[in-house]
Write a structure and sequence with these properties.
The protein has 270 residues and is an alpha/beta fold. The protein has eleven helices and ten strands. Helix 2 packs across helix 3, helix 4 crosses helix 6 and helix 4 packs across helix 10. It is globular, with a radius of gyration of 18 Å. The structure holds D-glutamic acid.
């Protein structure tokens, strides 16, 4: 048993989408979340920059004495997982690509046509294809970079035709030409646009990295005997740029009023 909090982070609001799953599965776990809203999106930055930003956030969360570092960001998982594991050898580091890849392999069989939507830096890293094909070399897989989606979500432009048009711009031809029947949401911002995807492409199966991450965290905590004792959990949310939008999106994702939550501004001396 370990009462310390779990450290979660993302480039912005997206990583919060895995937290409701954690709160349901592990109600006694306290969470410290860091969203690097001042420097989002990471998906359009170089691997070196993504690693540098991730290490700064890792230092902050390690300083908060977290028992686990959860990379609630595919872009960081694709580009900085090993660097973080090396920098913080005493803290287990969990990323979201390996658990999602395992779920894809479990759910999809030969003949199905899988499309992975992600940021440009995730697509360029090739980690999804590498991991899925190491487990199932014959699975049909295509990736598509959708760089404009994260900035729209960060702006709270979700239930709007601008989002629908942007999705169609990236996905209409991609889905039709590759006859995609399963879409992997390879970015933790994308669960927020899952309703748009279901409406625009009915019948397509959706696999979400945010949900798979939560399942992996539960497994890791259980295996390492790090679960918190039964109690009322207390979570804190930090952002490097605390905008009204960030607060509104947290309220929306968690279904809670900001007055009931601890939300703070914290820049990392950037
Ligand atoms: N939520 C991040 C991910 O899963 C978004 C990255 C970005 O800031 O572009 O990749």
């Amino acid at each position: 048993m370990d009462p310390r909090p779990i450290g979660f982070f993302d480039s912005g609001i997206g990583g919060v989408t895995s937290i409701p799953y954690i709160m349901r599965m592990l109600p006694s776990e306290s969470i410290i979340f860091y969203g690097d809203t001042a420097r989002t999106p990471y998906g359009s930055q170089s691997p070196e920059t993504i690693r540098q930003f991730s290490l700064q956030i890792g230092d902050f969360l390690a300083g908060e004495d977290v028992k686990m570092l959860v990379i609630a960001c595919n872009t960081v998982s694709a580009n900085a997982l090993d660097v973080l594991r090396e920098a913080f050898p005493d803290i287990p580091v969990v990323g979201c690509i390996n658990p999602t890849a395992r779920e894809v392999v479990k759910l999809c069989s030969h003949g199905e046509r899988i499309g992975i939507m992600a940021t440009r830096a995730t697509v360029n890293a090739g980690t999804y294809a590498e991991k899925i094909h190491s487990l199932a070399p014959d699975l049909y897989l295509k990736q598509v970079a959708c760089p404009a989606i994260v900035p729209l979500v960060e702006e709270g432009i979700v239930d709007h035709e601008i989002m629908d048009l942007t999705l169609r711009y990236y996905l209409d031809d991609f889905i039709a030409e590759n006859r995609i029947d399963t879409l992997v949401l390879g970015c933790t911002h994308y669960p927020l646009i899952a309703p748009n995807l279901q409406r625009l492409y009915p019948g397509i199966r959706i696999i979400s990295s945010a949900q798979e991450l939560a399942t992996a965290v539960k497994m890791e905590l259980t295996d390492r005997d790090l679960l918190a004792p039964e109690r009322e959990a207390k979570s804190r949310f930090y952002a490097s740029d605390l905008s009204d939008n960030f607060v509104r999106m947290i309220e929306r994702i968690l279904g809670r009023d900001a007055d009931e939550l601890e939300i703070y501004f914290k820049n990392l001396d950037i």
